[in-house]
């Protein structure tokens, strides 16, 4: 009887935390706003014809500029902000230190300023290590909110149900433990690994400031994380009312995490943007999925659809792409080969398995030409025959975990004519990676990483369906 009762508790706990209500302010879509000065930004790493690696950084140069011009408020939300490198080699840009120092310097220059960092508990290994970057911020009056992941739904209920019953009450100790650190040198406790296996995160990457010309928002796929500094990433920066909408979505996280409140200027007094014909809105969590499916399903014969994605595995999205191919949409899909993970070699799941399925249906597909770094961009661009274009870009991979209300995610959706600067730059970004240039080898043909193993295909399908995966 005791065993049956324990099993019933386990089952009910698992089911409840998969479907429970989300905290207020999550799973949001804002209205489209007229916007001006909408910019598409990209960080790029490529190999030249001699095999030498080169990198360019635009995204965090723009973020540092925003921080340096902020007047009364800075709210940053980044999944990874640490110096953990795993087994990756050196030569990285110290993005984490640059961002933290920029925040501290601006706070010192304007002591009346409110600044806040929202982040994920992975940066302290779920309370298992001290994070000196956070201590430095807090010592200078900048609070750090670690998202309370327990309030989110469980993507891996087979483990999380047991963890919630037996282990979530144990807390953790930053004084270290006896197990090897998965990303650093300081040993960690067993409790770090038990929390890690929940496989969920505040995966957002956003920045909002009030600059001299009003509110500025940045939504990106990039992290201010040293070992990620050579990754391929994209971002959209914009001004006006959509930036204050972004701020509102971010304030929901400290509200349910119970850590801090900050004074926010009157959001009603914002620059509404001029009538440039470019519109932008903010989407979080499953609203990103809905927007992606709407974009793909609305594409018709002769329209062009370009997708670049770090992880592609969501079954509804895959089926929608196959449907678009059958309708005559001109598809081009550029994927990370899922080979590199901070000095460790991965097995190609899930992208190579999804690529096999798409390739068999005739979908044109290429691989990012990675050499230790990751093709970490997340971007969907649809162009109509009449010149209209829609861009969806931000933090969300197209996976069950990222799109089905398990992780916290933020994307922007932009509508404009395909000649608008933001669209022209996004198209140029994709075209340069698809076609390569004589001295910039960005992508490789499908055959270079093709994997036709049915066993690994069904392994991907099982992992995607159950949540027993890190993607």
Describe this structure in words.
Helix 8 (286-298) runs parallel beside helix 9 (315-327). It contains 13 helices and 19 strands. The protein folds into 2 domains: 24-257, Endonuclease, Chain A; 279-466, Endonuclease Chain A (Endonuclease, Chain A, 2-Layer Sandwich). It is α+β, with helices and mostly antiparallel strands. Helices cover 33% and strands 22% of the residues. The chain has a 9-stranded mixed beta sheet with strand order 1-10-18-17-16-11-12-15-19, with helices on both faces. The chain is globular. The two termini are 38 Å apart. The longest helix has 18 residues, at 2-19. The model has no long low-confidence stretch (mean pLDDT 93). The chain has helices spanning 2-19, 59-69, 95-109, 132-139, 157-166, 190-196, 241-257, 286-298, 315-327, 351-360, 400-403, 421-435, 454-466; strands spanning 33-34, 36-47, 53-56, 73-78, 114-119, 144-146, 205-211, 214-220, 233-239, 279-284, 304-309, 330-335, 340-341, 344-345, 365-368, 378-383, 388-394, 410-417, 443-445.
A few lines on this structure:
The protein folds into 2 domains: 24-257, Endonuclease, Chain A; 279-466, Endonuclease Chain A (Endonuclease, Chain A, 2-Layer Sandwich), CATH 3.30.870. Helices cover 33% and strands 22% of the residues. It contains 13 helices and 19 strands.
Q: Name the beta content range.
A: 15-25%
Task: Report low-confidence residues grouped into runs of 5 or more.
Answer: none
Overall mean confidence score, pLDDT? 93
Distance between the first and last residues' Cα: 38 Å
- Broad structural category: alpha+beta
The dominant shape is globular
Gross CATH architecture of the largest domain: 2-Layer Sandwich
Largest sheet: 9 strands, mixed
Count of all domains: 2
Strand order of the largest sheet: 1-10-18-17-16-11-12-15-19
Per CATH, what is the topology of the largest domain? Endonuclease, Chain A
Discrete helix count: 13
The CATH homologous superfamily of the largest domain is called Endonuclease Chain A
What's the Cα radius of gyration? 22 Å
Helix content: 25-40%
Say how many strands there are: 19
């Amino acid at each position: 009887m005791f065993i049956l009762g324990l099993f019933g508790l386990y089952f009910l706990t698992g089911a409840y935390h998969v479907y429970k209500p989300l905290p207020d302010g999550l799973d949001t879509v804002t209205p489209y706003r007229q916007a001006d000065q909408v910019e598409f930004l990209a960080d790029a790493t490529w190999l030249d014809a001699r095999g030498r690696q080169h990198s360019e950084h635009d995204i965090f140069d723009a973020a540092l500029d925003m921080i340096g011009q902020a007047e009364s408020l800075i709210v940053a939300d980044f999944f990874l902000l640490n110096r953990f490198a795993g087994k990756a080699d050196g030569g990285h840009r110290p993005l984490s230190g640059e961002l933290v120092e920029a925040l501290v310097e601006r706070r010192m220059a304007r002591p009346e300023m409110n600044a806040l960092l929202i982040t994920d508990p992975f940066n302290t290994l779920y309370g298992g290590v001290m994070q000196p970057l956070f201590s430095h911020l807090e010592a200078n009056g900048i609070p750090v909110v670690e998202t309370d992941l327990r309030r989110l739904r469980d993507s891996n209920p087979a483990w999380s149900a047991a963890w919630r019953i037996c282990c979530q009450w144990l807390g953790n100790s930053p004084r270290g433990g006896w197990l090897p650190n998965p990303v650093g040198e300081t040993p960690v406790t067993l409790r770090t690994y038990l929390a890690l296996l929940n496989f969920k995160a505040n995966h957002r990457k956003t920045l909002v400031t009030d600059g001299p010309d009003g509110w500025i928002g940045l939504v990106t796929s990039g992290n201010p994380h040293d070992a990620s500094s050579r990754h391929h990433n994209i971002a959209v920066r914009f001004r006006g009312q959509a930036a204050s909408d972004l701020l509102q979505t971010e304030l929901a996280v400290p509200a349910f995490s119970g850590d801090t409140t900050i004074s926010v200027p009157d959001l009603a007094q914002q620059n509404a943007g001029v009538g440039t014909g470019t519109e932008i809105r903010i989407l979080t969590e499953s609203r990103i999925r809905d927007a992606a499916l709407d974009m793909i399903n609305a594409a018709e014969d002769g329209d062009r659809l370009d997708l670049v994605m770090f992880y592609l595995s969501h079954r509804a999205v895959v089926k929608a792409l196959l449907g678009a191919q059958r309708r005559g949409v001109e598809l081009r899909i550029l994927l990370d080969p899922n080979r590199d993970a901070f000095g460790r070699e991965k097995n190609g799941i899930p992208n190579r398995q999804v690529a096999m399925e798409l390739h068999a249906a005739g979908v044109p597909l290429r691989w990012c030409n990675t050499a230790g770094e990751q093709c970490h961009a997340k971007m969907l661009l649809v162009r109509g025959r009449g010149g209209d274009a829609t861009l969806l870009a931000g933090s969300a991979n197209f996976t069950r975990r990222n799109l089905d209300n398990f992780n916290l995610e933020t994307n922007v959706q932009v509508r404009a004519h395909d000649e608008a600067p933001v669209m022209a730059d996004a198209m140029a970004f994709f075209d340069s990676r698809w076609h390569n240039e004589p001295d910039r080898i960005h992508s490789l043909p499908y055959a270079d990483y093709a994997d036709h193993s049915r066993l690994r295909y069904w392994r991907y399908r099982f992992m995607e369906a159950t949540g027993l995966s890190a993607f």
